[in-house]
Design goal:
This is Aldehyde dehydrogenase family protein. The protein is α/β, with parallel strands linked by helices and about 475 residues long. Helices cover about 40% and strands about 25% of the residues. The protein contains 15 helices and 24 strands. The strands form seven sheets. It has a seven-stranded mixed β-sheet, with helices on both faces. The chain has a six-stranded mixed β-sheet with strand order 9-8-7-10-11-23, sandwiched between helices. Strand 7, helix 5 and strand 8 form a beta-alpha-beta unit. Helix 2 crosses helix 6.
Length: about 475
């Protein structure tokens, strides 16, 4: 079936606008053009920021009940058009229709949580009389919006990760400019459509489509932008941090997530959970299971069960409800994964299953005996590849798990609460899932990592904390 190319407009401070230069949006499954979006210029971004200055004033004066109404109404609109949103995600990205439908449901929840958290932006009274000489002073602090937020979002969750920035920004009274991934801009534009339908005042939100090399630096370096919220790769994150200047930075930069499976674990549940965790969204998941440390006594049985389950994974048409895994986001990315796997095999790694590429599709792949000097051992693969390592005991597994420069989330399978607490205390990660894989997350929890996995935290309540500042108020009374 041929998709009609409409030519989408971007949303610039309340106006849907076209530009002569365009970006082709392609379906990674067959590389067909599904739509186009404007290729914004640096001048477009400067204009957007100027408009957002007024938008920030409008947003800051919106009463809380109005912010709540608008964010909930946007969620209502998405819920009423759920199939359109899911089909768009599955068309422009890597996700299957089942994975895309799950993402739409999460986006709706993210927005509803954002609306609820708007009423919980609290301050506290301050006992100023704790200091001698201040007996006649009383006061408090409250939180106020910081102004304009610049959001740079990735391709792998093109709707919900945008909602994780837009929902909290509007709930907390800020203006926000979104620069979505060039390969998946349509879902972000649909999110803007939902907020327009919800009655969001113009200039509070913009979604600007374009190349990062042309508009990204303007957004990152402009002094009117008070915070950059970025989700993406480490190299780009480090570049943003160098350029941003004196502003808040929140970054989620990926991981190389470990899972430990001890001999007392429920083997069947551990296999099912880690297979899903490794290959969800073709492994293009910052929380995806990449390294599994398996106690030696169960290594053979775990390995056999995992490979058998992996070989039942159905690869193919993303729009089919029967498909478990679609392609990577581009053929270039699939070739990158193929090269990294081949490097490991050439250095002595053993291929248990997978390792085959056809266009942008790369089969679910399992490796063991992977040498430590391989790229895949230390870096984020961001593809459907998982590594097995035998481990003697929990102490050894924790040491091996920590031996990378990332630390977003981890998992451990055990029935021993003492061992679970040992892992909780000693694993260098921002989150640890007990009897679950590393990729479990709810949208209300704090989400962030240590080491090179990022700065700050997402999760709606915690994002709002990042997007607001405390202001202290103190009254000096003449009599008290």
């Amino acid at each position: 079936m041929t998709t009609q190319v409409i030519g989408r407009k971007m949303y610039l401070a309340g106006d849907w606008v076209k530009r002569d230069r365009i970006i082709e949006v392609r379906d990674p499954q067959d590389n067909s053009i599904i739509d186009t979006v404007p290729a914004a210029s640096a001048e477009d971004m400067f204009q957007c920021i100027e408009e957002a200055k007024e938008g920030a004033k409008i947003a800051a004066t919106m009463p809380v009940h109005e912010r709540m109404r608008i964010v909930n109404a946007a969620a209502d609109y998405i819920e009423a058009n759920k199939e359109k949103y899911a089909r768009t995600i599955a068309k422009e990205g890597s996700k299957t229709i089942r994975e895309a439908t799950t993402e739409v449901s999460r986006c709706i929840r993210t927005l509803r949580i954002s609306a609820e958290e708007a009423r919980r932006i609290h301050g506290e009274t301050i006992p100023f009389d704790q200091m001698p000489g201040s007996e006649n002073r009383v006061g408090y602090y409250y939180r106020f919006p910081i102004g304009i937020i610049g959001a740079i979002t990735p391709f792998n969750d093109p709707l919900n990760l945008v909602a994780h920035k837009v929902g909290p920004a509007i709930a907390s009274g800020n203006a926000i400019i979104v620069k979505p991934a060039t390969v998946t801009p349509l879902s972000a534009l649909l999110l803007a459509e939902a907020f327009v339908q919800a009655g969001l005042p113009p200039k509070v939100l913009s979604v600007i489509t374009g190349y990062g090399s042309e508009i990204g630096d303007v957004l990152v370096t402009h002094p009117a932008i008070r915070m950059i919220s970025f989700t993406g790769g480490l190299e780009v994150g480090e570049d943003i941090a160098r350029k941003a200047g004196l502003k808040k930075i929140s970054m989620e930069l990926g991981s190389n997530s470990p899972v430990i499976v001890l001999e007392d674990a429920d083997l069947e549940k551990a296999v099912e959970s880690t297979v899903s965790g490794a290959f969800w969204a073709a492994g293009q998941n910052c929380l995806g299971v990449q390294r599994i440390y398996i106690q030696e006594s169960i290594m053979e049985s775990f390995q056999k069960s995992f490979v058998e389950r992996t070989n039942r994974y159905r690869i193919g048409d993303k729009q089919s409800e029967l498909t478990d895994m679609g392609p990577l986001i581009t053929e270039k990315e699939a070739i990158r994964v193929e090269n990294i796997v081949n490097e490991a095999i050439e250095k002595g790694a053993v291929l248990l299953t997978g390792g085959e590429r056809k266009g942008a599709f790369y089969s679910p792949t399992v490796l063991t005996n992977v040498p430590e000097d391989c790229t895949i051992s230390k870096e984020e693969i961001f593809g459907p590849v998982v590594l097995f390592y035998p481990t003697y005991d929990l102490d050894a597994a924790i040491q091996q798990s920590n031996d990378v420069n990332y630390g977003l989330q981890a998992g451990i399978f055990t029935k021993d609460i003492e061992k679970a607490h040992q892992a909780i205390a000693k694993m260098d990660v921002g989150g640890i899932m007990i009897n679950d894989s590393s990729d479990y997350r709810i949208d209300a929890m704090p989400f962030g990592g240590v080491k090179k996995s990022g700065l700050g935290h997402e999760g709606v309540k915690f994002t709002i904390q990042e997007m607001t500042e405390p202001k202290v108020v103190c009254f000096k009374l003449s009599t008290y």
